[in-house]
UniProtKB/TrEMBL annotation, chain A:
PANTHER family: ALTRONATE DEHYDRATASE, ALTRONATE/GALACTARATE DEHYDRATASE. Residues 141-384 form the D-galactarate/Altronate dehydratase C-terminal domain. This is Altronate hydrolase. Keywords: Hydrolase, Lyase. It comes from Hephaestia caeni. Belongs to the UxaA family.
From TrEMBL, chain B:
One of its GO terms (biological process) is D-galacturonate catabolic process. GO terms for molecular function: lyase activity. It comes from the Bacteria. InterPro entries: SAF (IPR013974), SAF_UxaA/GarD (IPR044144), UxaA_altronate/galactarate_dh (IPR052172). The lineage of its organism: Bacteria, Pseudomonadati, Pseudomonadota, Alphaproteobacteria, Sphingomonadales. SMART domains: SAF. It comes from Hephaestia caeni. Residues 34-105 form the SAF domain. This is SAF domain-containing protein. Keywords: Lyase.
Length: 401, 120
């Protein structure tokens, strides 16, 4: 089934959007980069960045993966000049992928105004080159990578929105798509049933190891992946939240455990292990939901299904976010931000299957170019921090790209 | 896997007919093994809550998404939802009681509100 007129990239990937990434490489270059995006005044020019001055292997690998994401057609790097980020290495990786890239170094360009001017001109040139080389190709479901995440969970999430996403995942996987669910720290307590779904004994042991590592890590940090809003919404413990989060994964076999920046090749379901190696080095694994969305994107996710009970409003740079709430009160209050009303399941007005169908249909529509609510509202959140995590997880996975 | 009994995804199969059948009740029971039910809307003290055959009076005001005890849960016993343990009772819990941070805790790691932490 052809689902979109996709953007073919030089590296063989196919995108559902055609984004120019404007990337600041240290907080000191953030203002210039943000002004460039503002002045570009284009829904497909997005701001990405890394705040730290010290180099970090993970951040460099992540930025390479994001700047060469299927939805990204070109990039403009904004560097202060003296920071530790390997701007030459990042630019080389982007160029090698066949994408146009330019770099503006503020200390060389002459300061704030001249850098903004130079970077806006660079964005125009990159866009010009993207237009010249534009190649549209039919995109099939087997070309699509879909991630899922829950945020602002409550007592309805595990009953309505999450299992409905599980139904949609089953359908997407059966049609040949790659689906990724995540946060090993939010699967603590579900390791037993998850391991029984592993496609091989190696993957089962990788799941067990990843969850064990997550528990050790979060215990050392003193907090589980549990926010006060979860408690206000009726969730009492991390394992209760986990059980509800886990049902997003649907029912298909788990094909592999991947780490950030690993892009699966074979269709099927993957667990993304986002918890750093122990002992803890740079703090919490992911300080907020968007850090997880960014990691899903680094594994190739073209779009993300975001379930929320309390009512999150976020979207994302690079890859559209579709928001689904299982709480009818949240939908009534915040309908302007919600793409799918799974609260109808709580009220007995819809079933998991029908809402799962609605989600599946919306995935196809958004892949085909229809904007999600968060895209229409201009949400382009992005956050990337320090992390210490090996590129390859505890077990290899089949068909790596 | 502290006291793990079943795959929580199975609740989806239970919840589906359960949700339809319970459309008239303010609460739903996700799995027959559960000793708590979930409020499908805000519940007021004294309301009669039909839960899979039992009828229990609510002993507290409970918001949508929160848990209410179906049965007596002695202090130290497992609280079971989705057919799987989601923590342990820290006080005796009567049928109809609100079940939350004040009377249960995690068997894995602490929970917290903005004001305080509930140790595991």
């Amino acid at each position: 089934m052809i689902i979109a007129n996709g953007y073919a990239r030089g590296d063989g990937r196919i995108g559902i959007r055609n984004v120019v990434a404007v990337i600041y490489l240290v907080e000191c270059a953030h203002h210039v980069a943000r002004r460039v995006v503002d002045l570009a005044d284009d829904a497909e020019v997005h701001l990405l960045g890394f705040p730290g001055c010290y180099p970090n292997d993970y951040a460099l690998r992540m930025m390479k993966a994001l700047a060469t994401h299927a939805n990204v057609g070109g990039a403009v790097l904004v560097s202060l000049g003296c920071e530790g980020f390997d701007r030459e290495g990042l630019a080389a990786a982007i160029a090698q992928s066949g994408r146009p890239v330019e770099t503006v170094v503020i200390q060389q360009a002459g300061g704030t105004r001249s850098s903004i001017e130079a970077a806006v001109a660079a964005v125009r040139r990159v866009q010009q080159e993207m237009r010249q080389d534009e190649r549209r190709v039919p995109m099939r479901l087997s070309d699509l990578v879909v991630g899922t995440i829950c945020g602002g969970s409550d007592g309805t999430s595990g009953i309505a929105a999450n299992p409905a996403v599980g139904r949609a995942f089953d359908r997407l996987i059966d049609a040949g798509a790659i689906c990724i669910f995540e946060e090993t720290g939010e699967m603590i307590g579900c390791e037993g049933p998850m391991a029984t779904r592993a496609a091989s004994p190696e993957i089962a042991s990788a799941i067990d190891q990843a969850i064990g590592n997550a528990e050790t890590y979060y215990r050392a940090m003193g907090y589980g992946s549990f926010a006060p809003g979860n408690a206000e919404g009726g969730l009492s413990t991390l394992e209760e939240k986990s059980a509800g989060a886990y049902v997003k994964s649907g029912s298909r076999p788990i094909n592999g455990v991947i780490r950030p920046t690993q892009i699966p090749g074979d269709p099927g379901l993957y667990l993304l292990d986002v918890v750093p190696d122990t002992p803890p080095k740079f703090g919490f694994p992911n300080i907020s939901d968007n850090a997880e969305i960014v990691e899903l994107m680094s594994c190739g996710a073209h779009l993300t299904l975001f379930t929320t009970g309390r009512g999150s409003v976020v979207g994302s740079a690079v890859a559209p976010v579709i928001k689904i709430t299982g709480n009818p009160e949240t939908f009534a209050r915040m309908g302007e931000d919600m793409d799918i009303d799974a609260g109808r399941i709580m009220l007995g007005d819809a079933t998991l299957d029908t809402v799962g169908e609605d989600i599946f249909d919306l995935v196809l529509a958004v892949a085909g170019g229809a904007p999600s609510k968060s895209e229409t509202l201009g949400h382009r959140e992005f956050i990337l921090g320090y992390k210490s995590i090996e590129a390859v997880g505890p077990a290899c996975f089949p068909g790596a790209r | 896997m502290r006291g793990f009994t079943k795959d929580p995804r199975d609740d989806a199969a239970v919840a589906r007919p359960g949700l339809a059948a319970a459309a008239g009740s303010p609460v739903i029971v996700l799995d027959t093994a559960d000793n708590v039910a979930v409020c499908r809307r805000n519940v007021a003290t004294g309301e009669a809550l039909a839960m899979d055959g039992d009828v229990v009076a609510a002993r507290a005001d409970m918001p949508l998404g929160h848990k209410v005890a179906r049965a007596f849960i002695p202090a130290g016993a497992l609280v079971v939802k989705y057919g799987m343990p989601i923590g342990s009772a820290t006080a005796d819990i009567e049928p109809g009681d609100w079940v939350h941070l004040h009377n249960m805790r995690s068997n894995y790691i602490s929970s917290h509100t903005r004001a305080s932490a509930v140790p595991a």
